[in-house]
Automatic annotation (TrEMBL):
Record's protein name: Transglutaminase family protein
Species for this entry: Microbulbifer okhotskensis
InterPro entries for the chain: DUF2126 (IPR018667)
Record-annotated DUF2126 domain positions: 1-80
Species lineage: Bacteria, Pseudomonadati, Pseudomonadota, Gammaproteobacteria, Cellvibrionales
Family matches, as Pfam families: DUF2126
Length: 80
């Protein structure tokens, strides 16, 4: 399944940057993880770091479509 923001029929293949972007997405593979996210926060006293599991609506963290790094594409409004 292609990313939501990618329509290969509308891609401007005469544009070098668009062609490179499409090739990069397809070469990486559509089922390959983009990266990993570790939720961290301070404890109530602010003395230690803590982490927990996030329960996601879709069962997995789905990034906002785009070419920006993972940290800029987190769906902050849907995180617990």
């Amino acid at each position: 399944q292609l990313p939501a923001n990618l329509d290969p029929l509308k891609a401007d293949l005469s544009d070098d940057l668009e062609r490179q972007r499409l090739a990069r997405l397809l070469q990486r593979g559509l089922n390959t993880a983009t990266g990993y996210v570790l939720p961290l926060g301070r404890d109530d006293l602010g003395e230690r770091w803590r982490s927990c599991s996030w329960e996601m609506r879709r069962g997995a963290l789905v990034l906002i479509p785009g070419d920006a790094p993972l940290g800029f594409r987190l769906p902050l409004n849907s995180l617990p």
